[in-house]
Write a structure and sequence with these properties.
Elements (H helix, E strand, L loop, with lengths): L7 E8 L2 E14 L2 E6 L1 H4 L7 E6 L15 E5 L1 E3 L2 H5 L3 E6 L8 E2 L8 E6 L5 H7 L4 E14 L6 E7 L11 E4 L4 E8 L7 E5 H10 L6 E2 L23 E2 L2 E2 L3 E7 L1 H7 L3 E5 L15 E7 L2 E7 L5 E4 L19 E6 L2 E6 L6 E3 L2 E2 L6 E3 L4 E4 L4 E7 L1
Parallel strand pairs: 8-15
Antiparallel strand pairs: 1-2, 1-4, 2-3, 3-7, 4-5, 6-7, 9-10, 9-12, 10-11, 11-14, 12-13, 13-14, 16-17, 18-29, 19-20, 20-21, 22-23, 23-24, 24-27, 25-26, 25-28, 28-29
Length: 391
């Protein structure tokens, strides 16, 4: 799936000189010398005339970077294309003249329950903070939980609703929900309090119809979406590295190591070590998920817990239920996920406040990032690191 970053914009709303709302929008079409951007009506509802703006990172090819190497942010005034139908469905279509951003492909077909989806958007409701730390949209993964058609607001019109488990944060309202082929399937709209992680997106059918009525030229696709290819490969075992064997031949194994740096050890008084062992499989083609034992050790205390890693997924954060966590203000409760896909491990930041890095590169908003032997991942400023290496 090609990067959707250029199509996801920060929506900023003013009433006079007062900043009153921050949200996210997605480019859904072109026309009239500009682009059409879809967002939620509640994001822009209280803005004054000429008080709606969109912000987007400048293209790196244009050489626009700030002093920290992040893409410079460009700003454009946006025009709200008024629609009573859109307002009653919590959909707003903005027109941004002179902006050159690629529209997303819009789904023109059915979305299945339990389909894999991704939510994109710009968290934070503090504009100054966002300008300092966030130049790319965050990406969170989840699945469709339910599909309904009812009103979003009291007295509003019925609209297709998608309940899903991809994490949302304040500021992501109006951002895109896409399938694993990158097609727009909905606009993220609400977080359901006390619903065990269920969030709501408005289905794309109403967005598509309204944008076309208001003049947008939209590209759609209704075909089947196959399994998403992910560029992750297993690092080869060096010739002088012994491999564990069992009957039927030798197989390479893997371990997932997590530890605390010297500074973190001083702060915590102990290291966190996580080992993920898998029984080997022959190289070539997609490999089954790892299975085996997950060992967690904190300092000198080691706790062995036998579990099947059915989805080969390991979550790291400040607290992991009854599992030992990092216990640091810089580490979010849910910070990062490491998992096995196809032939290798990947890591994904899940909306942490202080970021996750791979070999010094911030991966917030970048989705699943392949990691191989010798790669290091840090969580916040606690200097916890993971390492993948061959056994």
């Amino acid at each position: 799936m090609e990067s959707l970053d250029p199509s996801v914009l920060r929506v900023v709303v003013f009433s006079g000189d007062e900043l009153i709302s921050l949200g996210t929008g997605v480019v859904v079409g072109r026309g009239d010398g500009g682009v059409y951007v879809a967002t939620n009506y509640h994001v822009i509802a209280n803005g004054s005339a000429n008080g709606i703006r969109v912000l987007a990172p400048a293209r790196r090819s244009a050489g626009g970077e700030d002093e920290d190497g992040r893409p410079a942010v460009i700003e454009r005034e946006a025009e709200y294309r008024r629609s009573d139908t859109g307002r009653s469905k919590d959909i707003a279509i903005l027109f941004v003249p002179g902006l050159d951003r690629p529209p997303v492909i819009v789904l023109d077909g059915a979305l299945n329950r339990d389909a894999e989806v991704r939510a994109l958007g710009y968290p934070y409701t503090d504009l100054a903070l966002w300008r300092r730390v966030q130049s790319r949209p965050w990406i969170t993964n989840g699945r469709v939980s339910a599909l309904e058609r009812e009103s979003i607001n009291s007295g509003g019109s019925a609209v297709d609703q998608i309940a899903h488990t991809a994490d949302l944060n304040s500021g992501m309202s109006g951002g895109p929900l896409v399938d694993h082929c990158g097609r727009l399937v909905g606009l993220n709209t609400a977080v359901l309090e006390g619903a065990n992680g269920a969030n709501i997106a408005i289905g794309v059918a109403d967005v598509r119809r309204l944008a076309r009525e208001l003049g947008a030229q939209i590209e759609t696709d209704g075909g089947a979406c196959g399994v998403e290819p992910i560029a992750a490969t297993v690092a080869p075992v060096s010739a002088d590295t012994p491999t564990k064997t069992r009957k039927g031949g030798g197989f390479p194994g893997w371990a997932l190591f997590a530890g605390i740096s010297a500074l973190g050890l001083l702060a915590l008084g102990g290291g966190l070590v996580i080992f993920l062992r898998r029984r080997g499989h022959r190289a070539g083609g997609a490999q089954p998920c790892p299975s085996g034992l997950l060992f967690v050790g904190v300092g000198d205390a080691v706790r062995d817990q036998q579990r099947a890693i059915g989805r080969a997924e390991l979550e790291a954060g400040a607290e992991l239920g009854r599992q030992p966590g990092f216990g640091s203000d810089s580490t979010s409760r849910r910070h990062a996920i490491v998992k096995w896909i196809g032939q290798g491990f990947v890591v994904r930041d899940v909306g942490s406040m202080n970021g996750t890095t791979v070999n010094g590169r911030d991966i917030r908003g970048m989705g699943d990032q392949p990691i191989v032997e010798g790669d290091f991942i840090t969580l916040g400023d606690r200097y916890a690191t993971f390492r993948i290496q061959a056994l």
